[in-house]
Amino acid sequence: MVAEVILTIVFAIALYAFLIWAYNSPEEVLELRRREYQENEFSPRVLRYIKTSSMFTMVAAPFVLGTLLFKPDIFGIILMLFIFAVVIIVAVIMLKAERQS
């Protein structure tokens, strides 16, 4: 159990470091895939999507990681719900923001 907690904490630190980096500089995150896009500038929608999804993931990730530690039998269900929630909720936030502007 102690090893699982340590591995989860190490994974969480790496995950949060990436998410904070993605929130603060989404352009650099997109530079990782620059070869595929061949564009000079990225759409503001894409940048807003990265910021919104990383913020939502920072809020919801502790629930998924806590489930991994304390209820491993339902971890798969929670992980699927988390992935669908990120996609759906971030899409709704993006559409609502686009309608307001």
Task: Please give a handful of descriptors for the protein shown.
101 residues; mainly alpha; 5 helices; 85% helix; 0% strand
Explain this structure to me?
By secondary structure, the chain is mostly helical. The chain has one domain (2-100). The chain has 5 helices and no strands. The protein has helices at residues 2-24, 26-31, 34-37, 44-70, 75-100. The longest helix has 27 residues, at 44-70. It is globular, with a radius of gyration of 16 Å. The N and C termini lie far apart (49 Å). The relative contact order is 0.12.
Mean pLDDT: 83
Q: What is the approximate shape?
A: globular
* Helix percentage range: over 70%
The assigned structural class equals mainly alpha
Radius of gyration: 16 Å
How far is the N terminus from the C terminus?
49 Å
The overall number of domains is 1
Give the count of helical stretches: 5
Strand content: under 5%
Provide the low-confidence segments as ranges: none
Main sheet summary = none
Tally of extended strands? 0
> What are the secondary-structure elements, in order, as H or E?
HHHHH
Give me a quick take on this structure.
The protein has 101 residues and is mainly alpha-helical. The protein has five helices and no strands.
